[in-house]
Amino acid sequence: MKPVALTGLALAAILAAGSAGYWAGHRGIASAGLRSWFGIEGSLAANEPVGTGPVVYYQDPDRRPVYSAQPRQTEDGRPFTAVRASQDISFEEKPATGERTVQADPKRVLYYRNPMGLPDTSPVPKKDSMGMDYLPVYEGEGNEDGVIKLSPGRIQRSGVRSEPVRRQSIVQTIHVPGVVQLDERRVSVVTIRADAFVQEVAPITTGDRVTKGTRLARIYSPEISTAGAQFITELNAVARGVPEGGARQRLENLGVPSEVIAEIERNRKVPLTINWSAPRDGIVLERSVSDGMKMTAGGSLFRLADISTIWVLADVPERQLAAVGIGAPATVRLRGRPGSSFEGRVSVIYPEIAEATRTAKVRIEIGNRDGMLLPNMYADVEIGSGDAGPLLAVPDSAVIDSGTRRVVILDLGEGRFEPREVKLGRRGDGRVAITEGVAEGDRVVVSANFLIDAESNLKAALSGFAQPEAKP
């Protein structure tokens, strides 16, 4: 009789006997008979291959994801199934049935590690508190020191992306605050060099704009009048052939305007009062006189400033000062006038660091179109670095900076990655120069590199334990 027919008869006999109650007290004998009939011992399928090698762990007899490192039983008294080394879980691709196997047996799983990079291992498959499967560590994976291997699926899920190291120009832009200041070379103080009385002050006040030669005040000075009379006497003597003396020079030393001296020479008459005029174009910063005042020699009448060219003093942090050079381009934007910008260049770097702020003053000269820039205005300044030569550079995201160690992750291909310590150079435009550690053409990870770095740290930590009990 064929085996299929025998199997059917046996099942029919067992069912019939069970319905009659004969087998009710002989369940153990029936189970043994079934296992003996089908040739099954500790398996659920008759054609399942028998495992070889040492026992790796024990699994629930119903193949549920419940494991044990030691023999144990279910709640209803059934023993867990022993899983041997040849039956262990493997993620390697297996050849189809009948296909000849060229390679040797799949690598043996040494142990399972925490999927989140925690220093926790297990000799058997398990899940963490979030339900994630522990990752297998295969025999021979630790041969390449410092090299991390990731599966293609994990690389895709993590979003790992890499770029080659290229030579690029890095233009560093420094953003700093600044304050508008007057050009010190264009500030004038209108004074009188002799005792005098202010007869009348022109209707000019602080903030008014004046041009060169504009009358500021009318004064009377006995000393200037005496010098003017001597000058007329000398002019008359020169007309009679007497050599010229120093009367003209005395008037000039007293600060008498040249036009007043020319008027005395032309009319041969000393004016009772003299018009004191502005020496340059500019705005009135300060008015110090009033009608009827008596001024002593050296007293200030007005303070003027030419604002056609103006300064912006920017505070550059000490750590960025090395990137600023004389002649570097600068863009100034006024906080009080959004949308307006002025172009200039760095003219002076002050040789002093402020002790409180650790910044240095950098002077930028700017043409003041339409007089928009006023003293003490706040401004935002952008200063470009002067040197823009090509350098080995990578994106900022490629560098893992712990403060004491700078690392990039090299993509070696085929899911292999290696941490590499580097030295950094100039930064700018979202990139950073690498002065040591990589070569042109090397591929560096620019996305999800911190995950690979955590993997590397975990691998280094686990290699230091090397506990035999952690490896089945």
From TrEMBL:
Cellular component terms per the entry's GO annotation: membrane; outer membrane-bounded periplasmic space
Residue span(s) of domain CusB-like beta-barrel: 309-385
InterPro entries found in the cross-reference section: Beta-barrel_RND_2 (IPR058792), BSH_CusB (IPR058790), CzcB_C (IPR058649), MFP_Cation_Efflux (IPR051909), RND_pump_MFP (IPR006143)
SUPFAM superfamilies: HlyD-like secretion proteins (SSF111369)
The keyword Ion transport belongs to this UniProt entry's keyword annotation: yes
Entry protein name: Efflux RND transporter periplasmic adaptor subunit
An individual GO BP term: copper ion export
The organism's taxonomic lineage, starting at the top: Bacteria, Pseudomonadati, Pseudomonadota, Alphaproteobacteria, Hyphomicrobiales
Keywords, sorted A to Z: Ion transport, Signal, Transport
Keyword Transport: yes
Annotated family: Belongs to the membrane fusion protein (MFP) (TC 8.A.1) family.
Naturally occurring in which organism (per UniProt): Bosea spartocytisi
Domain CzcB-like C-terminal circularly permuted SH3-like: 392-452
GO MF annotation list: transition metal ion binding; transmembrane transporter activity
Every CusB-like barrel-sandwich hybrid domain range: 187-305
